[in-house]
């Protein structure tokens, strides 16, 4: 039974770049706005990826991430500040893992199960991020959409997991904090765990998660109960 994780927002804290930058000298312009900036950056990043898929155009996730930041900085009249842009991108390339992630991965690894990441990030971006977070040793595969040149939740992306492990969709347990990703994975046939750290209600999306957890710790307890 492969355990497969989304990366950004599930293992890696996508708000940490803006939060950490706002605390640094010379970044005072971010101090009062970083939560809104982080949310807007993330929303654009995802929206741009979906639009690329719909248009059958592929720009890798790092390029999308940079363009999403540029547009978001314009919203806050900060597009002129190249220092802020450069610092935010540098921090985003090495996002912090959520606090519970290393412990949960270590515990899961004792079950002799296969563990993988399935991500929108291109291979170099994904490898750098997982390594910088200090969690690369737990995974036997980092699976990127780059080989298909399309983004989640396109069904063919989830098929990459089956191709890797030679299993059926029902064998896979998929963890994601993104409700649209959970919906897509569930529609493909994966068993799904929605890591709902924000405690929001499920959107009006197709299907329902098999499990809802407030953290990966809680997800582990639900699965092993």
For this structure, what is the CATH class of the largest domain?
Alpha Beta
Briefly note the structural class of the backbone.
alpha/beta
Principal-axes shape call: globular
Strand content: 5-15%
Poorly predicted spans: none
The oligomerization state is single chain
Largest sheet, strands/sense/barrel: 6 strands, parallel
Helix % is: 40-55%
Number of helices: 9
How many domains comprise the coordinates?
2
Which CATH architecture of the largest domain? 3-Layer(aba) Sandwich
What strand order characterises the main sheet? 3-2-1-4-5-6
Computed CA radius of gyration, to the nearest angstrom? 17 Å
DSSP E strands, number = 6
- Per the CATH scheme, the topology name of the largest domain is Rossmann fold
> What is the typical, i.e. mean, pLDDT?
96
């Amino acid at each position: 039974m492969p355990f497969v994780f989304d990366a950004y927002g599930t293992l890696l804290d996508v708000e940490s770049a803006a939060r950490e930058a706002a605390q640094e000298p010379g970044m005072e312009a971010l101090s009062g706005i970083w939560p809104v900036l982080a949310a807007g950056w993330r929303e654009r990043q995802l929206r741009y990826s979906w639009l690329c898929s719909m248009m059958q155009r592929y720009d890798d996730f790092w390029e999308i991430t940079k363009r999403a930041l540029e547009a978001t900085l314009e919203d806050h009249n900060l597009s002129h500040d190249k220092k802020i842009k450069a610092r935010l991108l540098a921090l985003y390339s090495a996002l912090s893992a959520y606090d519970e992630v290393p412990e949960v991965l270590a515990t899961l690894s004792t079950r002799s199960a296969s563990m993988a990441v399935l991500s929108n990030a291109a291979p170099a971006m994904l490898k750098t991020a997982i390594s910088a977070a200090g969690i690369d040793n737990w995974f036997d595969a980092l699976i990127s959409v780059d080989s298909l040149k399309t983004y989640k939740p396109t069904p063919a992306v989830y098929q990459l997991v089956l191709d890797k492990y030679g299993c059926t969709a029902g064998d896979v347990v998929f963890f994601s904090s993104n409700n649209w990703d959970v919906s897509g994975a569930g529609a493909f046939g994966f068993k799904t765990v929605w890591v709902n750290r924000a405690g929001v209600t499920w959107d009006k999306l197709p299907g329902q998660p098999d499990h809802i957890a407030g953290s990966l710790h809680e997800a582990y307890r639900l699965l092993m109960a």
